[in-house]
Specification:
Blueprint: H1 2-11, E1 15-16, E2 36-41, E3 44-49, H2 51-64
Antiparallel strand pairs: 1-2, 2-3
Length: 70
């Protein structure tokens, strides 16, 4: 099952939801600050979390863990 999802994900061409909007300072160059990407395949639209959001979530978890507090 996971292999099928991986193959489907590789076939989808991911793009920013607003590809032509200007990127402001501090925004992610991949998603443009929206935190997710979209892709279309076979008439379906897919949504995927951007790498910047995944990193932000990981940093928040690290800060909230007992190891992140000083």
């Amino acid at each position: 099952m996971q292999k099928e999802n991986k193959e489907k994900e590789e076939q989808i061409q991911w793009r920013a939801i607003y590809p032509n909007s200007p990127i402001q300072e501090g925004q992610c160059p991949i998603c443009g600050g929206v935190d997710f990407l979209i892709g279309e395949k076979d008439g379906y639209t897919y949504k995927k979390t951007c790498v910047c959001e995944e990193k932000w979530i990981a940093m928040q978890k690290a800060r909230n863990s007992r190891y992140g507090k000083e």
